[in-house]
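seq:
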Amino acid sequence: EITVSKFIKYLLFAIYSTTPLSVTAEDKCGTVSYGNIQSGYIFQDVGFLATDKAVFQGGSTLTCGQWSFDLWNSSELSGNTPYGNRGYGDEFDFTVIYSGTTETTQIGRIEYEIYGSYYMLADLENFKDDIIEIHAQFGWPFKVSSAKITPYVRVMRFQGTGVIKSFEMIRPGISAEIPISEKLRINGDLGIG
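struct:
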């Protein structure tokens, strides 16, 4: 019998013990880890309030060339209830991203991203409340001093696995990336919709 904790351990082992087959000698690989504490959790892109209780959220991304693999976690910081049984503040996600940039077109360079994610929500032993997201994003980057500003449009499909209904949406937005040092950047994203 495979429990959620065994599934997560196997998934972590698989991601960190393998190298994508498309990686060549000139592809650069790296891992980034991140985390924060928030006073609540609003589900990204949708605007659904998952919890108004404090959460710790963090993850790790392995990137090789145009491929990225991300593990992300949200953990509600309330009560003594076990992880995965406290409501929508508890979540575990696995994401695969393929991204790149086109050659110059009539409207300039276009950055693109093809994204697939599996969201394990709330009751981590029950897969009926989970969501699969697939999206394609296209952006038109430009520089302002050392900052990179990218207006974009994202086309998304959210597929519920039972309880949550499936839906599509188109989200325009703008992202900014400001370098602080060679290895440190500030990123922000403002979406409409």
